[in-house]
Specification:
Layout lengths: L15 H19 L3 H4 E4 L48 H9 L23 H18 L10 E4 L13 H13 L23 H23 L1 E4 L11 E3 L2 H8 L8 H26 L9 H19 L14 H21 L6 H22 L22 H28 L1
Antiparallel strand pairs: 1-2, 3-4
Helix pairs in contact: 1-9, 1-12, 6-7, 6-8, 6-12, 8-9, 8-11, 8-12, 10-11, 11-12
Bound molecules: flavin-adenine dinucleotide.
Length: 434
């Protein structure tokens, strides 16, 4: 079967089989129960930003593209207003008090900043705090691989809006993918212009450039596996199905998208790229684990928050035991040239995160934004240098420069959850083929 992939994952040191076992038996079930928790379920996103690259294809009015907004009463009190992922055991400083005073119950307020301020003493005023926050944002933005959403946005309940088939296709969807691959991916010099990159040419590029292509292709694979495994099998117009329609795996759709016959031999390589991005994000989670394990995951409900922390710790311990198969330290080594390459890499990725504002289907835009932000957060953890020497005992802002906003943490874990589910769904398609 074309979807039975063999051998070692490119540029990693483990096989597809090992990842299948590790993910399906250990990671996937745990992530499923973590991602329904309140801290991870509500994602703040601005779906109304204009497309910066071309005139919008007027937002798609397809029924299944609709994003259901969250209900104010469902948003946990701890996520409203100034939402700051805090370290456990942090002593409340005047700044914490300042932030607490700023809390409001506005569902749409944008104040998703993470600030580690344990060292500040009692003399701080709110003006200095505002200036300090601006500087921190400036410093952080240099590390970012993604454009962060600092201009508004609304909470969306991800459980009410699952990623699945929407019917978004045709010129609008193709323009997005073409622009990503043709204008914002690195290309082998030997490849023909204005065509999709052939997998056989990927090795003509250096490690960093092929890694870039593989993560994008792996993300594309994941999106297309989701829409094939949660396909609209029958619409609401039928009387014998639920008013919402019936959703389930569509094997023909999956085969059309990934079999060698229908993809000029490329499908299995695209499937393998899913494993590459999975290993990269897994490595980022392991690297940030000492930091993530110290956060409160505050929603305002003590029992819920404690359970969330336990579940996060459990997953991160397992992830860390498997993370040596991807080695980011061999990338971007080699002085000023490497730095230039890294800047270019960052620029390309930022462009891709902007392109998500051009996606003409709200539901696809929501999940596209979440997943590119999750990937951008993973790249920041791996390559900004800020997480290289994390020391849990050094919380002082002056000594230790690192921070993640809540939205980055939510997108990182949910984005990894999407990849984990794709690997799980792929196994189900394999079983159908047997
Ligand atoms: P496409 O998937 O549009 O691919 C275009 C071309 O890219 C292919 O012809 C092929 O040459 C190449 N290609 C395909 N797969 C890969 C790969 N993995 N690696 C490298 N090259 C590849 N639709 C939904 O139903 N639900 C969603 O949630 C959804 N989310 C989306 C999110 C984004 C950001 C985008 C851009 C699109 C989304 N779509 C979604 C649409 C979906 O991805 C397809 O574009 C659509 O179904 C049309 O598919 P297609 O067969 O024409 O090929």
């Amino acid at each position: 079967c074309f979807c039975k992939l063999n051998g070692v994952i490119d540029d990693c040191s483990c096989t597809v089989d090992t990842v299948d076992y590790f993910n399906n038996a250990k990671i996937y079930p745990r992530l499923q129960s973590l991602l329904v928790r309140d801290y991870f379920r509500f994602f703040k996103v601005n779906l109304n930003r204009p497309c910066p690259f071309w005139v919008d294809d007027s937002k798609c009015a397809m029924r299944y593209c609709h994003v259901q907004p969250c209900k104010e009463k469902d948003i946990p009190v701890g996520l409203k207003g100034a939402d700051v992922p805090r370290h456990i055991h942090i002593n409340e400083s005047p700044v914490d008090k300042y932030k607490a005073n700023q809390q409001t119950s506005d569902c749409n307020q944008n104040s998703d900043h993470n600030i580690e301020l344990g060292y500040l003493n009692t003399t701080i005023s709110s003006e200095t705090y505002a200036g300090f926050e601006r500087w921190q944002q400036h410093d952080d933005s240099l590390d970012n691989f993604c454009i962060t959403e600092n201009d508004g946005g609304e909470y969306v309940d991800l459980l009410l809006n699952p990623e699945r088939y929407t019917g978004y296709k045709g010129p609008s969807a193709h323009r997005i993918w073409r622009s990503i691959y043709m204008e914002n991916c690195f290309r082998p010099e030997t490849s023909t212009k204005n065509t999709f990159i052939r997998s056989s040419k990927i090795d003509d590029m250096c490690l960093e450039k092929r890694a870039f292509y593989r993560v994008i292709s792996g993300l594309h694979t994941s999106i297309n596996i989701h829409l094939s495994s949660k396909y609209l099998l029958s619409s609401q117009n039928r009387l014998d199905v639920s008013p919402e329609g019936t959703w389930g795996p569509n094997f023909d759709e999956f085969q059309r998208r990934f079999s060698p016959e229908t993809t000029d031999g490329e499908g299995p390589n695209w499937l393998k790229n899913l494993y590459f991005i999975y290993m990269l994000e897994l490595r980022a989670l392991a690297k940030a684990a000492p930091y993530l394990q110290k956060l409160e995951y505050y929603t305002g409900n003590q029992i819920e928050d404690k359970d969330t922390r336990l579940a996060v710790n459990d997953i991160l311990n397992i992830v860390s035991s498997f993370s040596e198969h991807f080695n980011e330290s061999v990338m971007f080594n080699g002085g000023s040239e490497a730095q230039l390459l890294k800047d270019e890499f960052k620029q390309h990725f930022r462009n891709i995160s902007r392109i998500m504002d051009c996606v003409g289907c709200d539901k696809c835009r929501l999940w596209g934004k979440l997943q590119t932000q999750g990937l951008g957060t993973a790249l920041k953890i791996l390559f900004s240098g800020a997480f290289d020497k994390y020391e849990p005992t050094l919380l002082d802002f002056g000594k230790q420069r690192f921070s993640l906003e809540r939205t980055e943490i939510v997108s990182l874990i949910n984005g990894f959850g999407r990849l984990s589910e794709s690997i799980f769904e792929l196994e189900k398609f394999r079983k159908i083929m047997r």
